[in-house]
Amino acid sequence: MVTQLLSSGDRALARAFIEAQGLAFEPGFDDLVGAFEAGALVATGARAGDVLKMLAIDPAWQSGALLGEVAGELVRLGLAAGHDGLFVFTRPAHAPSFEALNFKLLCSRAQVALLEYGGRFDRWRAAAEALRGPPAPGDAPDRTAGAVVLNANPFTLGHRWLVEEAARRCQRLFLLVVREDRSAFPFEARLRLVREGTADLADVVVLDTGPYAVSAITFPAYFLKAAHPVAEIQMELDLALFGQRLAPALGVARRFVGTEPYCATTRAYNRAMQRVLPAFGVEPVELPRRQLGGLPISASTVRDALARGDEGALPALVPQATLEYLLSDEGRAIRARLGGGKGRHA
Amino acid sequence: MRIARKAQAGTMQSSDLMVALEPADTLVVEIESTVKQQFDHLIRAVVDEVLARHGVTAGRIRLTDRGALDYAIQARLETALSRAAER
């Protein structure tokens, strides 16, 4: 019988148990549950947002139904909390145990597998395929499109130039705007400015990544300040997910990216693209950044100008729609925040 | 009846299923099952029968099944429906 572990005594038991199973105890969960047999804790699991973690089962009990009981309780709690799906990271060897519980394998690498419960990816793919349109007759799998994944925080003339250059190199270009809302500019605004800033370009389709690219799920270290030891594993998983799932759904054969002048994490990500994507039939294409007065235009240049209060610099850095947004009341509220502390991509 | 709120029923145990319901403008039934290949059509028939009996014409119905028998599917779905109904 799975119960919530609420008392400090139960939580101390859970911590000792989880660490004894070789996992790290990570505080900051929404739910922590466990199962007892004859007074001893034999299984645990936790949920943080829409991610299940710290799933551990006493080796003596692993052949039974405990994983289903623990995962089922966590899924129940997660759905009740309003999530429409739940992720779990596990060792690749354990992926089949979760598949037997109707989790779907999204991506498996040497060290980690990512699975999802709730059918969200199928819904994302259906929406993406509806935008993509039917493949040409007799031409499956039709791989003629290109893609750019961008945070667009906010959309600049540098992005615009990259989009124009990429669009010239393929029949259709998908712009995947990072949905994760951890940046200075909210997702809805970033998405709208990309739409407005590219509305005049034929065969450019804007859609959102969902949680499936550069998100707190696939690549949390992108949103951290310092270099993170597991960033390398995360970015490879993020890119493998793109190659294995997103690219086939959209018919993408090439992923375009701008050279990264400032940020070491993004540079490492661009290098990882070269390592990971070709195996999935996706060619990574790095295009030089557009420069202004010898300096590359990037969204961080724009945020720096905003933080300094240098409105005069903006028209040379951003398209009209972004400029109007930055000078609007909503944009001003964000600029006030930028004046204070600021993190990477934040 | 009308699905007025999110609701769920069931477990992830073998021979059981989890049902999750939420309001929607049209009727959408999504079935995941470890025995989908063999029994998808039979599961769907049971779901359709229960929904028709309760006059449900709109909502998103998600089932994740681990080989439940007909009466378990009926019972879990009816429990979820009564939880999702207007009070």
Descriptive overview:
The complex is a heterodimer of chains A (346) and B (87). In chain A, helix 7 (231-250) packs across helix 8 (264-276) and helix 9 crosses helix 11 (329-338). Chain A has two domains: 2-118, 3-Layer(aba) Sandwich (Aminopeptidase), CATH 3.40.630; 140-338, HUPs (Rossmann fold, 3-Layer(aba) Sandwich), CATH 3.40.50. Chain A is globular, with a radius of gyration of 22 Å. By secondary structure, chain A is of the alpha/beta class. Helices cover 37% and strands 21% of the residues of chain A. The mean pLDDT of chain A is 89. A seven-stranded mixed beta sheet of chain A has the order 1-2-3-4-5-7-6, with helices on both faces. In chain A, a hairpin with a 2-residue loop joins strand 13 (291-292) and strand 14 (295-296). Chain A is built from eleven helices and 14 strands. Chain A has helices spanning 8-20, 66-80, 95-99, 120-132, 157-168, 187-197, 231-250, 264-276, 299-308, 320-326, 329-338, and strands at 2-4, 31-37, 40-48, 51-57, 86-90, 104-108, 113-117, 145-150, 173-177, 204-208, 252-258, 283-287, 291-292, 295-296. By secondary structure, chain B is of the alpha+beta class. Chain B has one domain (7-84): Ribosomal Protein S5, domain 2 (2-Layer Sandwich). Chain B is 38% helix and 28% strand. Chain B has a four-stranded mixed beta sheet, covered by helices on one side. In chain B, helix 1 (36-53) packs across helix 2. The radius of gyration of chain B is 12 Å and the shape is globular. Chains A and B meet through helix 2 of A and strand 3 and strand 4 of B.
Task: Give a quick summary of the entry.
By secondary structure, chain A is an alpha/beta fold.
Topology:
The complex is a heterodimer of chains A (346) and B (87).
Chain A: E1 2-4, H1 8-20, E2 31-37, E3 40-48, E4 51-57, H2 66-80, E5 86-90, H3 95-99, E6 104-108, E7 113-117, H4 120-132, E8 145-150, H5 157-168, E9 173-177, H6 187-197, E10 204-208, H7 231-250, E11 252-258, H8 264-276, E12 283-287, E13 291-292, E14 295-296, H9 299-308, H10 320-326, H11 329-338
Parallel strand pairs in A: 4-5, 8-9, 8-11, 9-10, 11-12
Antiparallel strand pairs in A: 1-2, 2-3, 3-4, 5-7, 6-7, 13-14
Helix pairs in contact in A: 7-8, 9-11
Chain B: E1 7-10, E2 17-22, E3 27-33, H1 36-53, E4 59-65, H2 70-84
Parallel strand pairs in B: 3-4
Antiparallel strand pairs in B: 1-2, 2-4
